[in-house]
Amino acid sequence: MRKERLIVPVLVVLLLAWLAGQGISSLLFERGMARTLDDLAARGELSVERHDVERGWWSSSGRIRLAPLLGDAWQLELGYEAHHGVLSTEVSGKAVIRYGTDGTRLFGDSLPAAAPRWQASYRTLSGILEGGIRLEPFRITQEDRELNFGGGQFHFSGVYGDWRLQGRLDEWRLSDGDTWLASGPMVLDSQYAYTEGAEAFTQQDRLEIASLTWHQPGLDLDAHDLVLVNRMILDDRELRLRIDLDLGEVLTADQVLLTGAVDAELSRLHGDSLRRTMQRLRSLAASGDQALDGQALLVELEPLLLASLQDSPRLDLLELDLDSPMMKLSAQVDGALFFDGSDLDELSLVGLDDPATRARWRRRLDGDFVWHELPTVVALWLGLPLDTRTLQIDVARGQVRVNGRPLPPLRR
């Protein structure tokens, strides 16, 4: 009898614990989503909104809208329904992509395919969100034009402050009569880690394209194994951007037209000025001032953008290694270019169409580059001795000299 008396209290405790778990799971899901969306908006690139939100212990729903911070070129709406469990929350919904001022739907209005659906799972205890979305194949034809898309899929995962996106697009082909552009599979791997409010972040993207083909009457270009790697870091001091491009092989007429790689880094962009620029952009977007066109926006942001140059940015060409067996030309170049960041009040971004303004910007440039193993035809074109094997390129206050001589006119 005593054991039977204990059953009811135990069941009540278990029920209360389960209900508490449900409530905590719903609360943690909402808190995690709010923090993630706030930090996404903090980057200063996107407008992030949530509409039609309904919160509950058992389920939640709503719509997330992503769009460029300024303008209406596109918008992404993610509808979601979340079903909360004690240990995890299952989320699913529809992704609607709109473009243009009238909000035309990409899937459904412009393309003969249903809007893709996405699904994810949020683990309550660890805070890990993992999910994916699949794009179905479609084919669209308009007179002689045709787009044949083979589909694709994307997978995302991560926790607050550390996210990863992986994707693959299958073969696609765009044709217009006898002219067409076709791509083999594309693979994307993107990682984004950040501190609260995106005050500092690191983003690395890697894009691999198996093949890219351009065909028109009289010309065929085939590129294989293209790889583009981008790494962006914003820390306490500066923003650094490094780009590494591997061209693989570009062929035409069954000959190798071009192969090689480019590796460059832009650094010393003032970190606090860029953060203030992002904050100002968010403030302008929140004000809803539609009167700001591109020129007016540039006037508004000009002091902040100029301030980002105060540490004298530099562009390092770490490697430029190109070879054209077909043309019997090659280029191995390295060097650096510096921008003088003093007395920035003398400069303007607004009047860059004025030759005098552009000249003031050019006079801020200094640097030097070295072209190793200079091809003879380039030496001939530059009016240098034919046995010249090293080309020293010097930039002083915007004026370019090659091996101590003024750069000859590029057009003759």
From TrEMBL:
What organism is listed for this UniProt entry?
Billgrantia gudaonensis
Protein name, entry field: DUF945 domain-containing protein
